Amino acid sequence: MRWAVVVFPASNCDDDAVKGITTATGDEAVKVWHQETNLDDFDAIVLPGGFSYGDYLRSGAIARFSPVMSAVRTAADQGKLILGICNGFQVLTESRLLPGALLRNSHLQFRCEMAPLRVMNTNSPFTRLFQPGDEIHIPIAHGEGRFFADETQLDELRRDGRIAFEYLNNPNGSVANIAGIVNSRGNVLGMMPHPERAVAHWMNSSDGEKIFQSMHQFVEEGVVIG
Amino acid sequence: MRQFDVQVRVGLKPSVFDPQGNAVEKSISGLGHTGVSEVRIGKYMHFYLESEDAVAAKMKVKELCDTVLCNPVIETYDFQICEMADGSPVAQQPDLTQPALTQFEEKRSEAKQAEAKQTEMEEQK
Predict the structure, then answer these.
(1) Helices (H), ranges, chain A
(2) Banded pLDDT at A222 (limits 50, 70, 90)
(3) Residue A222 Rama label (left phi>0; alpha psi -120 to 50; beta)
(4) Domain boundaries along the sequence of chain B
């Protein structure tokens, strides 16, 4: 399968994402500049971490209007897999491809540390290789990762099993300890932790590999999300 | 086309915790000031807009707020539109503190004068 890693001005985890994907899956991963308008050649699209457009106005608010985002929306509508990591998650919420928003951490600190997480849903294309309730370790690095959703949205996320990961030690004040969620169709995942930074023993965790491998397996099996 | 001066204020919804406002409030009370509460930090934006008339200008600003300037999931906004005279950029960023400060200064000088008068009267006695 072929992966696209979108590069916005001031994305800074794009190379790490490419490396993480190729390490975990052996697949080809290509960096795609944000001016691209066609992503037909790709089976999965990753929006990497960073500070797109300097986080001006709001994190992800300007990247949302990049030409590539209409192609990302088309790909999402086609049922292709979209993974937003950190700033990529912020871009996805700003684009309304995922509900909620990401706000300044409640303690105002930038947190860069290993985060223990609970895998909440193993039915998604992104988490199918985990066991329900698995405790995994994936690092975070953000100042604006406090997930917020109103009660109605939260009820919906809980009811439909769309919370993918929860923090065991909430590092930013996220509502309901949410670290990652999927859309209603199940083919778009946004998460604040960086799976591409947990793909080797020397990184102190290789738990991130399973996310890329889950996606790989899902696509190779040719499952169509309807 | 007519030229309008637009000021937009964006703030977090009351239901959303504002850690910046909270930190500023704590530092204010740390300095010994009392009676300051519910500090919220927001954003102020200022721009010029060309439009056919005031109604169209208002519609356009609302559209910009709803799509770009404000995220309705977490924020609310309000705005002011003033038509600019003869198309020249007369509008400067208003000093929002000025009227309140002037009033405060006036009241303080009135109080000082009254105090001086009282002292004078007491001295005369």
Answers:
(1) 14-25, 68-77, 87-94, 151-159, 209-220
(2) confident
(3) left
(4) 2-92, 95-125
Whole-number Å distance between alpha carbons of A122 and A12? 29
User: What is the model's pLDDT at position B104?
Assistant: 54
Averaged pLDDT for residues B58-84: 96
Interface probe, candidates A95, A103, A152, chain B, greatest B C-beta count within 10 A: A103
Does residue A85 contact residue A13 with C-beta atoms inside 8 Å? yes
Say which residues have a Cβ less than 8 Å from residue B101's Cβ, sequence separation at least 6: none
Task: Give the pLDDT confidence score for residue B114 in this predicted structure.
Answer: 79
pLDDT, tens only, B87-98: 565 545 555 544
- The CATH number that domain B2-92 falls under is 3.30.1280.10
Question: A2-220 has which fold?
Answer: Rossmann fold (3.40.50)
B100 contact A CB<8A: no
Q: What stretch of H or E contains B64? A: helix B54-64
Sheet strands (E) in B52-122: 75-83
What six digits make up the tokens of A66?
A: 């990049």
Q: How many residues does chain A have?
A: 226
Cβ atoms within 10 A of the Cβ of B5, count? Answer: 20
Q: Do A108 and B23 touch (CB under 8 A)?
A: yes
Listing DSSP states for B21-38 in one string gives HHHHHHHHHHTT--S---
> Is B74 touching A (CB cutoff 8 A)?
yes
The confidence score (pLDDT) of residue B100 equals 47
* CB-CB under 8 Å, A148 with B19: no
Q: What are phi and psi of A66, to 5 degrees?
A: -60, 150
Question: Which residues in B lie closer than 8 A to residue A106 (C-beta atoms)?
Answer: 17, 19
Give dist(CA B26, CA A20) in Å, integer. Answer: 43
**pLDDT grade for B32, boundaries at 50, 70 and 90:** very high
What is the ipTM score, two decimals? 0.87
Alpha-carbon gap, residue A116 to A109, rounded angstroms:
18
- Look at the block and give the residue holding tokens 């491809």: A97
Residue A83 sits at φ, ψ, to 5 deg, of -120, 120
